[in-house]
Amino acid sequence: MTRSRATLRRAPSRAAIAMIALLATAGCSESSSSSGSPRDTEITVAAIAPIKTLDVAQIEVERSIASLVTEPLERTKSDGSFTPRLATSVRVAPKKLVYDLEPSAKFSDGKPVTPEDVAFSIKRLTDPKTAPVAASLLVAVKEVAATGPHQITVTSDGSDPSLRNNIAFAVRVVEKANVGANPKDFGSASAPPIGSGPYVVSKFSTDEVVLDKNSSYWGEEPAFKTIKSKFLPDDNTARLAMRSGDLDVKFLRDVGTARQWESVPGASLAALPTTSIDYLSFDVAAPPFDDVHVRRAFAHAVDRKGLIDIVYGGRARPLIGMLTPEELSSISSPKEAEEILSGLPTYKYDLAAAKAEFAKSKYPNGFSIKVNVGSNIAYGEKTMLILQENLKPLGIEIKINPVSEDEWTAPLIAHKDLGMQTFSYGPLIADPARILSLMVSSSEAVPSGQNIANFTSKKLDSDVATLTGSPDKAQRLAAAKSILEAVAEEVPYIPLFNKESITVTSEGFRYNTDGADYGDYSTGAWIDHIEPVS
Amino acid sequence: MKFTVVFIQRRLVALTLLLLIVSFAVFSLLDLSPGSPEEALLGPEARTNPASVEAIREEYHLDQPLLQRYWNWLADVAHLDLGRSTESGEAVTHVIAQRFMLTTELGLFAAVIVLLIGVPVGMLAGLRRGSSFDRVVTSAAVFLASAPPFAVGILLILMFGVWLDWLPPFGVGDGVVDRLRHLVLPALALASAALAIVVRQTRAAALGVIDQDYVLFARARGLSRRTIFLNYAFHNAALPVVTTAGLLLVFSLSGAVFIETVFGLPGVGSLLIESINSRNIPVVQGLTLLTAAIVVLGNLVTDLLALALDPRTRYAGTA
Fold it and tell me: CB-based contact (8 Å) between B63 and chain A?
């Protein structure tokens, strides 16, 4: 057994969790390797749950590993940019996406990747019975057809401007015959997928999945000889395993543990910005949060900087608007995004200002509220404790009610007794349309909807329609700006923090952050950023 | 003999009733608790897509009323079909079978440690009451009984996996020898609390036996210490030890949940946690039934052993 190995800890076991970083359940993986050329090196990847499937149609898919075996057409980044993979170029026409495919691409069994295989890979994911989560991203797809020897065309109903992004995120190209031969268990241990990726599955059991270099890979030679993904759910054990040399890289699930990881001898931490946001919401349709002065008083009473230090060990930044500059820049230049966000009204941590705002409200004598704090919201309880203390002098009593994730979710889904909520959101794809439309649409201010502030207006609905439906970037940006301004002015939500994505590598490795993106975890690009150091 | 048969029959009837009650309780509790499988499975974004929700509800019959679903489930169970996992779509029996072997190996390994170390050490401590050996054993037992198994696990990993680097800190291993090496630390951690109980129980039993007249008489007859130890003290002290074994079984099953997580072992303990988190009701149900059955059957075996060991219990039954 090789003594020095690397272990990559995997992301949320389920795509559903990956989609929503409610739980700060961003990707987590770890890897390790021996000295010498990385091309002869064995890497071990630790998984927080046993890998059940490598088929992206399944909710439980482990994308970080699946994406090394079956490839995407393109890789996406959180700034909205694309890197070619199986598709060498993409032409975007109204209601059409035309993908030119890499002619030399072949599956690990030697068969060429045909347009029929690619069309099949997309089509199967549009069926909610086969792929419930992926299908929700591909609802706009109407038809997929092979339109040339190395070309496919996706025809859409035009309702989703982020469709290209969604396809890049959701689709991994599989061999049609391989799926057909294993209709029930494709992707599982009994029928691992045959893909065109840099690695092939050589062992698949509940405790580990082993990937070997695909010797006939059509692209650049893979960086490591072997990648092992091992089941290692406990954080304490993972740190000890890194100390003993059994684990070299870990994508932190909870950035608040970063300081504990810093104490592992020889370990180094690499931080990347994410598009996740933590925020508070207020039900503007019911007392006492139907008064904007109450909401602004709360906004002045949150000590973001203090909380970042306590909750995330300094590994987060205060949010100005309801999304990150990086996410907004997917439809604008970084400079424009920065300008829009810095131009928004802000509420400094200032208890005197909070008092002054509150005095202007309908409830100047104070009130009492109960706030559910879900165990899945890392910052929830500490933020509430600070608010509780800071608002007590104004006569506001906050009763903190710690609850399980299920108990916390139930009223949100029922859309009842919303009051004040703590919430985290990790957009699946980088496009402001997703998050802003969910937060302010009237169609979302219903049971199961995401507009838990009940913050609606005709203007907001029309802005959402432009933002989600218009092909014109400038119009979309103007709509996004309008929504962001309305939220900042009326404070149905208080943006709090944007946390980092952290990768820990053991002695002998580093995670090169040049050109890296936190979404690399699910696209498979993460492996290219792990480098041995002498 | 007749008494034993009736005894077993009664226990099996009780087992069936217990399994029915437990399964219905778990089914109802999971149904009543907030959240639902389709929400847990799809997440907030996809659950707003009606087609996805409908597909999930239809596949797992979530649109039927509770009693109807329970009845259907029960009818399937009667045919040994525990349903399909809501996560992977695999048969629940297959999902559990995949993970069960590892937990069994871990449990057996821990049981061997408990019996091979706990019984002789407790016996010696009892026979040498008040000696320094007895004092060390008693103190160690108090320490182990009060230390949570997961903390013992972390301590063992630190000592033997990191500082001394003798054993692998986590994982399952390939092949018999490698598997055994990987299971040493988790088995020790799992055995720790049970070991403490067995040592104390055996010591107490030995203390009770050593003062008996028949031991004094055996000594007076000039029998060797070894003969007295094995034929008199050991045999007579075995009964209370065996009766605690049923308790230890429950202890080990609950301990396995933590130990498997700490040591990265994909057994049924970690499967239970994963399934509860994802509201995978068919798998949780399957595991609950399995656990209840193991506990009841385990206790039945210990009771039968007690019957075999102590004739008085048999006479009591026929009287």
Answer: no
